[in-house]
Amino acid sequence: MSDHVVSAPPDGAQTGAGLLVAVGGAEDGLIDQHFGQADGFLVYALEGGGGRLVEWRSIAAHALGGEDRRATIVRMLGDCRMLLVAKVGEAPRKLLADAGIDATDRYAGQPVTATLAALAAA
Prior knowledge:
Low-confidence stretches: 1-15
Helix content: 25-40%
Strand order of the largest sheet: 3-2-1-4-5
Distance between the termini: 27 Å
Oligomer: single chain
């Protein structure tokens, strides 16, 4: 992961970007992290025909004392409209959907860069 990636909590401030997409995978790698096994997520802004890395969000860094792990993830990804992971169960998918986040494993194993480019072009 690049040194420019930050781990600041989302504070509702605008990133100057359009649609934000969280990814369970490695920067310039594959979408290969399972929802329940990820330590955090890369957050990209869809723009200019692709994705621009905005930040890395660590689950541990965002966790509040006694908060359920899933609740932490929903809160920390609250400004994202989509979550791309290798696998996500129905219960977490519904929890995320209720928060306005479309969680999908449709792109499991696909390259992050190519997937973001396809989503930006759609």
